Amino acid sequence: MGFGDEGGAPLKEVVVLSGKGGTGKTTLIAGFSALSPEAVLVDCDVDAPNLHLLVSGSLIQEGGFSASQAASLDASRCDRCRICAESCRFEAVLLDDAAGPRIDGIACEGCGLCERLCPSEAITMVDRASGTWMATRTSGGMMFHAILGAGEGNSGKLVAMLKRKARAYCVETSASLLLIDGPPGIGCPVIAALSGADLAVLVAEPTLAGKADLERAMSLCRQMKVVPAVAINRWDLHPALSEAIEEMARQEGAVLLGRVPFDEAVYRLASSRESIATTETAAGTATRRVWERVQELIRNESR
Amino acid sequence: MRIAVASGKGGTGKTLVSVNLSAAVGADLADLDVEEPNSYLYFRDGPTSIIPVGRPVPAIDPGLCDLCGECVRVCAFNALVRLPGRIKVYEELCHGCGACMRLCPSRAISEADHAVGCLIRSSSGARRLVYGRLNVGEPIAIPLLKAVKGLLPADRTVIMDCPPGTSCNMIEAVKGSDYVIMVAEPTPFGVHDLILAADVLDRMDVPHGAVINKVGIGGVDIAAICAEQGITVLATMPFRRDIAQRHAQGQLMLDRPEDRRMFLDLWASVTKEVRR
Description:
Chain A is of the alpha/beta class. Helix content of chain A is 36%, strand content 24%. Chain A has two domains: 12-66 and 135-302, Rossmann fold (3-Layer(aba) Sandwich); 68-128, Alpha-Beta Plaits (2-Layer Sandwich). In chain A, the strands form three sheets. In chain A, strands 3-8-9-2-10-1-11-12-13 form a nine-stranded mixed beta sheet, sandwiched between helices. Chain A has a two-stranded antiparallel ribbon with strand order 4-7. A two-stranded antiparallel sheet of chain A has the order 5-6. Chain B is an alpha/beta fold. In chain B, the strands form two sheets. A nine-stranded mixed beta sheet of chain B has the order 3-6-7-2-8-1-9-10-11, with helices on both faces. Chains A and B meet through α4, α6, α7 and α9 of A and α3, α5, α6 and α8 of B.
């Protein structure tokens, strides 16, 4: 979905992504939230969520989340025929384990083939707890976040569910802006976070790795028909690379949002849960300018 | 011996540790962050071989298919949908479990290859790298990650640069390694995600310890937290603009004897831990 084709619905979704991890996504979105207290927040980095460390509040609702099943093997019924182990593509059946035959719950992807093939009915598929979702009332808007259970997969499904809850809440409360903190990478949870967004803010850092990863993230935005807008964080650590990244972004048709300098204050403030965006620091001023550009883009494109 | 370098939080310095440590001790390097591989930027000679990788997806023979819908029912991933007159395959949702092919009563399903990315070998002088590059838009990284691991020699020491996070990609990457070096930073985010990663590794029963990188920023007493959590600290590395800048441009940081010493000391700590 791109700009303006939501059939008149006022809700706008801005997702912050980066490709490379550690470029400053969460710090930026916490800043946006401080500058736009009515916005609803979603932390889509469900396997290493951090937004709740910057945006405090009180938990008002939480629930379990199950996105898949896993096989469970009853050793007393198993006659070691090995049909399950030979057909499992994920090497999840451990028949020769010292403790007796069992399923490696981390390796099992829940396809259920073993259950269907087992002649002794020793295998049953059971729901697996994949994680917990939470709604937290912050000093700004409501924040939807989650934590994936240790070792669980399916983070794309958890991201999609979190966004559904957040969108429903926005409709219910007539909120007009959803700010989404995305995960690093370009795989399934990123695709789920990006899906349906009106604008993708890509935070890049001036390193060769940051440039290479941004290029792939922009390419994903293009595939998913979401407008990419690029902000460079800690730009002064390598001005020449910052220049090169902006040039690449321009050529790829991305909107430039500006640059945020390296500022020790960001780290100091994070430890006391303060947002950089409302302070008179170099990074604070720059963050406000980036936010103004984002607001302009949202406004212009909604006409 | 396989040593994984992981982190939880992204951007803490996994690639910095991986490329410099492997170069300092003469180990092979594998980059398992197939969504956003970066280690190749430190290998100037460029690719020496590129091998495409696919994963199996169902291919339905319309001449044999009688549209009974059994494949749609058995697919746990909703990758098959019955439309009027045909079964449609959503390849991006398929996990390649083979259930549909195995259970089709008409034997109408065979398997085709869905391209997911490629395996690339690269070198720089005597240093050797193997990595995977996932195609943009491909959601599932695991098959490619497994393919990279399949190329690793059993008889050599390999350092594995792993993806961030604590979910399936990270788990698949560190699985089977002799030891995991977790790279952490002394910020609230860094500490939070280090604890998550250590928890996953404890559950997997893989021995692990931490390198504290960027000491000087963040102001969190991460060493005290490591002691409290029972996490071994293997080494600490300062935040220095000169390190950040050289690493940014794809340079190793082994020229200065004291920096080289730091990685050799780290290696001594790791090998001591592995022998324990």
